Amino acid sequence: MAQLDGSRPVTISDVQELVKQKDELEAQIKACYELLEGQKGVGMNEPLVDAEGFPRNDIDLYQVRTARHNIICLQNDHKALMKQVEEALHQLHAREKEKHARDEAEALAEAMSQNQSLPQAFAKVNAVTPGSPASISGLQVDDEIVEFGSVNVNNFQNLQNIATVVQHSEGRPLSVTVIRSGKKVHVGLTPKRWAGKGLLG
Asked: Which residues form the PDZ domain (predicted)?
């Protein structure tokens, strides 16, 4: 009977091997019971002596005794093996659970570190007019603005701050930093007059 070696983790194939042994043991036990059945239906407990106390001569006593002995041994082995199967399955599940918890913790840590490395946004682009300076520079709806020229999260009070920067920068490129889909993106934006309203659109 294969013993599980405690020094290494249980694998699926260990469990399969144990189950195979369990099936073999069950087949042997069944064969022994069939042998007893073949001996005039003598089970595990029927007397092997006749009414006068003599050994029965209608059955093969040696075969019956051997079969009974084997059944007892095999059943003990079977019990021990079932305990091993149970422990192996338990270890496998515990390891899966541990791995799952570890993966989740790693994913969480990664998400946290990404969030920490991204600067804080102070405004969000909710519309970009096609053909406008903003559109030509590559600004997109849902971009979160982190820096707009000299304006950032530390000195931003309201949208008037941005309007002031835009007016002072007409025709000159402005450095704009946005967060797009969780990544920092730099956009070069030049405020200028165009067909639509304002210098940006």
From this structure: 90-182
Instruction: Enumerate the β-bridge partners of residue 151.
Output: 148
Compute CA distances 176 → 16, 29, 56, 140, 149, whole Å. Answer: 61, 80, 103, 12, 6
Q: Report the amino acid identity of residue 149.
A: G
**Contact at 8 Å (CB) between 193 and 199?**
yes
- Quick one: CA torsion of 40, 42, 43, 46, rounded to 10 degrees? 150
Structure tokens at 29: 């036990």
pLDDT value at 196 more than 80: no
Position of tokens 């089970």? Answer: 43
Bridge partners of 179, per DSSP, are 144, 184
pTM: 0.49
Average pLDDT, the chain: 85
pLDDT at residue 114, rounded to an integer: 64
